[in-house]
Amino acid sequence: MSEGQLNLNLRVWRQKDAKSPGQIESYAIKGVSTEMSFLEMLDVLNEQLLKEGKSPVEFDSDCREGICGTCSLSINGCAHGPERGTTACQLHMRHFKDGETIFIEPWRASAFPVVKDLVVDRSAFDRIIAAGGYVSTKSGPHADANAILIPKPQADAAFDSAACIGCGACVAACPNASASLFVSAKIQHLALLPQGQTERKRRALRMIEQMDLEGFGNCSNLGECEAACPKEISLENIATMKREYVKAAVHPSGR
Amino acid sequence: MAPLPSSKIPEGPIQGKWQKAKFDMKLINPANKRKHTVIVVGTGLAGAAAAASLGELGYNVLNFCIQDSPRRAHSIAAQGGINAAKNYPNDGDSVWRLFYDTVKGGDYRSREANVYRLAELSVNIIDQCVAQGVPFAREYNGELANRSFGGAQVSRTFYARGQTGQQLLLGAYSALMRQVDTGKVKLFPRREMMDLVLVDGKARGIICRNLVTGQLEKYAADAVVLATGGYGRVFFLSTNAFNSNCTAAWRAHKRGAYFANPCFTQIHPTCIPVAGDHQSKLTLMSESLRNDGRVWAPKNAADCAKRTDQLSEDQRDYFLERRYPSFGNLVPRDVASRNAKNICDEGRGVGTTKRAVYLDFRDAIKRDGENTIREKYGNLFDMYQKITGENPYQVPMRMYPAVHYTMGGLWVDYNLESTIPGLFVAGEANFSDHGANRLGASALMQGLADGYFVIPSTIGDYLARSHPEKISESKSEFAEAESQVRGQIKDLLNIGHKGKKTVLEFYRELGLQMWNEVGMSRTDAGLKKTLQRIPEMREEFYKSVLIPGTGEELNKNLELAMRVGDFFDLGELMARDALNRTESCGGHFREESQTPDGEALRKDQEFSYVAAWEYQGKQSEPTLHKEELKFENVHLTQRSYK
Question: Can you give the pTM of this predicted structure?
C-alpha cells in the first residue's frame, strides 16, 4: 500500500484523576503516516507533547494486535472507531482523511469510572466473571479429553461466544451502558457445552445479579453493542441470556 | 561466589522421574495449607494456572499483574496451538516422541528430565482445559481436531482457531476467578513488582508500585512465584505486548537469582514486516500458516518489485522446499528465520523495505477452496488485511522474522526453584524447557504444565521442608527494600524533569542495537561493540532522559523508563552471554560457527552446558556458572531437516 501523510486536529479528553472534572483539549498533529495504527498516532502525539513540556495523554494498550482487549478509546463517538470488527489498536490511519477533526474520549459508563485521561477502570467485568463465569473444576486428573464428544457446530458456536475480549466496547456503545453482551457471551459459551450444564442456572442468576450490582444499565435491544463489538459477538447471545435467566428464575433447581 | 545449586533431577529412569519426585515430596495437611501464603506475580498461563491451583489446594494466594485485568496477560495473544502427546490421529506420536522432538528442536541445550516431564504432562493439560470448557477445534464426529505445527511430523497440536492462547488463558482466568470468588486468591491488578524482599536469604515478599496511585506497597508471604513472561521487548520491536518487560525477573536477578542462557531468543519467521519508523510493535502470523502457505522469493533480484501474478513458476524460488525437501515449509523457526534473512541479505527481499519474503496461499486455495482456508486461518487473514491493507486471499502475504519468545530466563532447578530459596519461576520467565530454540505450540504447553501441575506440587514440598516462620511486612527488610525503590524513583524523576530525550527514543535506540548485533545472527565484533555501546547509552539515559509528572499518579512514561533502565542491563548480559557462547545452536547463531552449507554448528564438547549468570553489582562483571547437560536418552546429533 502506498503511504500517505495526514495533518489532523485532535480533540482529546483530559482528566487528571477519577475525582477531577475533565475537559476536551485540542491538539494539532502533522505528517501522520497512513500506515500507522491509531495508537501509534497517539504515541507520536505524546512524543510531541513531551517535547513541548506538556503532559502526555494517558491511554491503555498492550498487545496492540486486537486480542487482549486493553485499548478502550471512543473515536468520533464510536467505541474503537469507525471500522467494523476492529479494535482501536488495529485501526489504521488510512481510514482517516487529511485535515480531519477526530474526537478521542474514554469509555463512558458509570460502572467504568475514568482513572485518568482515556484510562478507565473495568474491574466490574472481573467481578462479574468471579460470580460464576466458569466451570467449577480443579487442576488435576480428568477424564480423557475425547470422552466428552461435542458436535462441531456446537463447539464452533461456543467458540464464537468465547471469543469475547472483555474490552467493554459494548458498554461504551450502549445508550444504557448495559453489559449484557459481555455477560451473555460468557453465559452462552458455557450453556452450549456439556461441561457448563451442572451450574447453568446458578451461573445465569449470579452473573446477572452481579451485573446489576455493578451499576450497568438494562438492555433495550438497540443492538449498538453488536455493531461496536470488535469480535462481532452476536446479539443472539443476549436473547439466550434472557431465556436462561427466565428458566433459572422460575425453576432454580428444576430442569 | 556461590556455586550453582543442584538441579535436583530425581534418580532413576527418565520415565519414572516425575512420579518419584512427587512421591518423595513432603506433603502439607489440608488444615495447615490455609496457614501459608504464596505470592504469584503474573497472570498469564503460568501465573493464573499456578494461582488458581494453589488456591484450590487451600493456600492463600496473592496474585499480581500489571494489566487492568488478569485476563489481559500476554499469553492471550498466542495463536497457533498447544502440543500434547495424545496421539489421537494415530500417526505414531507418543510422550517419548514429543520429548525427543523437543530436546532435538531445542538443539540439545535443554535439560532432558524437565522436557520429559513436560511431554508427560502435556496429556493432562488437554484434559484439564477441556474440563474447563475451553472450546478447542473439533471434527464433525465431535472429537478434538489436531494439526501438525512447525517442525513436527505428527499432528499433535490442539487449537482453537487462531486464538488458542486466548482460549487457554480465559480457561485459566476462569479457574482463577473462581478462587477469587471463594476468597482463596486475592487479586492485585495494575501493580508492578519493583523488588523482591529476602529475609534470612529466602524470598519472603515483594515491593509493588500501584500503577494508579503510584504508592509503593509491601506484601509478605512464605514463597514467591514469578510468572512474569519473557524479555523479548529488549529489542523494542517484537511480537510481545507493549507492556511486557523484564523488570520483575531482573530485580530478582539483582537480589541473587541467576539468569540462565539470556542470549537464547527466538526469532519467529512469519511476522508482518516493519512499515515505518513509527512502528511500536510487530504482529505475528501463526506459523500454522506454513502448513498450507508456501514461502518464496523471486529468483532474480530484478523481479522483486514486480507484481506476484507477473512471476511465473520458474521465476519463483520456494527456498525452504528447495533446501529442506523433507520438512519443506515446516522447518523449525530458527531455520526458517535465518533463511528469510539470507534471502533478503542477497537482495531478493520484497515490499517497500525489501526486508520480506512471500507466504503464498494461491496453491492451497486452488487445492482446498477459499472456504476451507478461511475456516482454518480466517482471523489471521483478517488481521493481516487490517494491518497492511492487502487481501491475502488475492495476493501473497509478505513476512519477515521478528523477536517472539525468549528461551532464556531465571535459572531454576527441577522443582522450578531459583537460586534464591523460596523463589519459584514459571513459564517463559524461567529458562528450563526449550533449550536454544522453542518448537511451535510448546510455550502454551510449558506455561500450563508449570502452573497447573509442577508449581502446586513443588511449592508444597518447599513449605513442608523449610517451615517458614511467620513474618509480616513490618520486618525491617521490607522497609529497606521499599526505601531503595523510593530512592530509585525519586532519582529518576529528578533527572527526568530536566531531561531532553524521551524514553521511547532511548528505547528504540537500544532495540535497534540489540536487533542488529544480538538478533538473528551474531558476531564477535558486533557483540563486543554492543558491550561497549550499551553502557554509553545507559549513561546518557541516566543523564538526559525526559520523564514528565510525578511518582504519585498514573504515569506510563515513568513505568516505561524503569523498564527500559532494566532492559539496558539485561541487554548487556545478553550480549555477554552471546559472546561467551562461541558456538551456534538453535536461535543463537554465531557467524563464526556454521557448517559449510550455512547451518548452525554446535560445539558439544565445549558448550553442552547451561550458562547461569550471577549478578555482582553495578560495577563488576557477572560471574558465569555452568550446569553441565547430560544426554542419556536422546543421542546428540547435528540437527538436519534436509
Answer: 0.97
Q: Specify whether the CB–CB gap between B427 and A114 falls below 8 A.
A: no
B626 beta partners? B611
| Digit-coded pLDDT (tens) for B30-53 | 999 999 999 999 999 999 999 999
Return the SS3 of B520.
coil
Using the structure block, give the residue that is written with the C-alpha cell 495447615.
Answer: B32
Distance of residue A146 Cα from the nearest chain B Cα, in angstroms? 6
List pLDDT tens digits, range B74-133: 999 998 899 999 999 999 999 999 999 999 999 999 999 999 999 999 999 999 999 999
What structural domains and CATH numbers belong to chain A?
Answer: 5-116 (3.10.20.30), 123-250 (1.10.1060.10)
In the predicted model, is pLDDT for residue B468 greater than 50? yes
Separation in Å, CA of B533 to nearest CA in chain A: 24
Give how far Cα B488 sits from Cα of B28, B493, B495, B499, B526, Å.
Answer: 40, 9, 11, 16, 32
Per-residue b/e over B220-252, b at no fewer than 16 CB within 10 Å? Answer: bbbbbbbbbbbbbbbbbbbbbbbbbbbbbbbbb
The enclosing H or E element of B512 equals: helix B503-517
Cβ <8 Å between B548 and A55: yes
Across the interface, do B77 and A146 touch by the CB < 8 Å criterion? no
Check residue B153 and give its pLDDT.
85
For A62, the closest of B72, B505, B555 (CB atoms) is B72
Domain with CATH 3.90.700.10 in chain B: 269-402
CATH topology of domain B476-627: Methane Monooxygenase Hydroxylase; Chain G, domain 1 (1.20.58)
Complex prediction ipTM? 0.98
All 3 cell numbers of residue B5?
Answer: 545449586
The pLDDT score that the predictor gives to residue A47 is 97
pLDDT 10s digits, B426-439: 999 999 899 999 98
What distance in Å separates the CA atoms of residue B414 and residue B111, rounded to the nearest whole number?
A: 9
Q: Is B333 a catalytic residue?
A: yes
- Cell numbers for B254, please give them: 539483582
Q: What does the pLDDT average to over A165-183?
A: 98
User: Of B97, B209, B333, B338, which is the active-site residue?
Assistant: B333
pLDDT band for A1, please (50, 70, 90 cuts).
very low
pLDDT > 70: percent of chain B = 100
Confidence at residue A2, expressed as pLDDT on a 0 to 100 scale? 59
Quickly list DSSP for B258-319.
-EE-TT-EEEEEEEPPP-STT-----B--GGGGGT-EEEEESSGGGTTS-GGGS-GGGEE-H
Fold of B269-402: Flavocytochrome C3; Chain A, domain 1 (3.90.700)
Cβ B286 vs Cβ A67: under 8 Å? no
Q: How far is B322 from chain A (nearest CA, A)?
A: 30
A130 and B175: CB-CB below 8 Å? no
Asked if the Cβ–Cβ distance from A139 to B67 is below 8 Å, we say no
